[in-house]
Specification:
Helix content: 10-25%
Largest sheet: 5 strands, antiparallel
Enzyme class: hydrolase
CATH topology of one domain: Cyclic Phosphodiesterase, Chain: A
Mean pLDDT: 87
Strand content: 35-45%
Family: Belongs to the 2H phosphoesterase superfamily. ThpR family.
Protein name: RNA 2',3'-cyclic phosphodiesterase
Order of helices and strands: EHEEHEEHEEEE
Strand order of the largest sheet: 2-6-5-4-7
CATH class of one domain: Alpha Beta
Distance between the termini: 39 Å
Number of helices: 3
Pfam family, one: 2_5_RNA_ligase2
Shape: globular
EC number: 3.1.4.58
CATH superfamily of one domain: Cyclic phosphodiesterase
């Protein structure tokens, strides 16, 4: 498991749910088929952002490590079953039609941990989504066969801004706790991007 959370220069960081290769490939196929135009996100960059930490100086890295150490959450399954588009800022996305209750609890816990660690807390209502394309023309919503994504960990990502686009580097991963021994649960409730106003 990657653990590159060392002190050093300022790094542009965010916390995310990071998909495995199977989920990335399944989502990328849907994007190629259902997103009519725009600049598709490379499969290796697909993710769900939980919190953007911004430019973090090296001396603040112990506080970043504390976020993962203090975060308590359970494993769950995220069912990506709806593709939509925000006309502004012209972003196509895939998301769960209903946010699992356990993910909502994890988000609330994360906000508390961020606040205690001295990081800014997101002001917008949480609506988990995976960006598929940018500069996308508006298009209709599509309900799709769910891509079932078992969520087992939270990932700390460093963003490298390069001329060719963003490149992401996994720095740390913190495991979530198994909920039961019978498989993944997907209790539902909460907000999806398509329901936001």
């Amino acid at each position: 498991m990657p653990d590159n959370c060392s002190d050093g220069d300022t790094q542009r960081l965010f916390l995310a749910l990071w998909p495995d290769e199977g989920v990335r490939c399944a989502v990328a196929r849907l994007a190629r088929r259902l997103v009519p135009d725009g600049r598709l996100v490379p499969p290796e960059n697909l993710h769900v952002t939980l919190a953007f930490l911004g430019d973090v100086p090296g001396e603040a890295m112990p506080r970043v490590r504390a976020i993962g150490a203090n975060l308590v959450g359970a494993t769950f399954a995220l069912e990506l079953d709806r593709i939509g588009c925000w006309p502004r800022p012209r972003i196509s996305w895939i998301a769960p039609s209903h946010t699992p209750a356990v993910l909502g609890r994890l988000n609330r816990e994360l906000r508390q941990v961020l606040r205690k660690a001295g990081f800014p807390v997101p002001s917008r209502r949480f609506a988990p989504h995976m960006t598929l394309a940018r500069r996308s023309a508006p298009h209709a919503f599509h309900d799709v066969t769910p891509v079932v994504w078992p969520i087992e960990r939270i990932t700390l990502i460093r963003s490298h801004l390069e001329r060719a686009g963003a490149r992401y580097e996994i720095l740390c991963e913190w495991p979530l706790q198994p909920r039961n021994t019978k498989g993944w649960e997907s209790d539902k409730g909460g907000t999806s991007p398509g329901n936001m106003k």
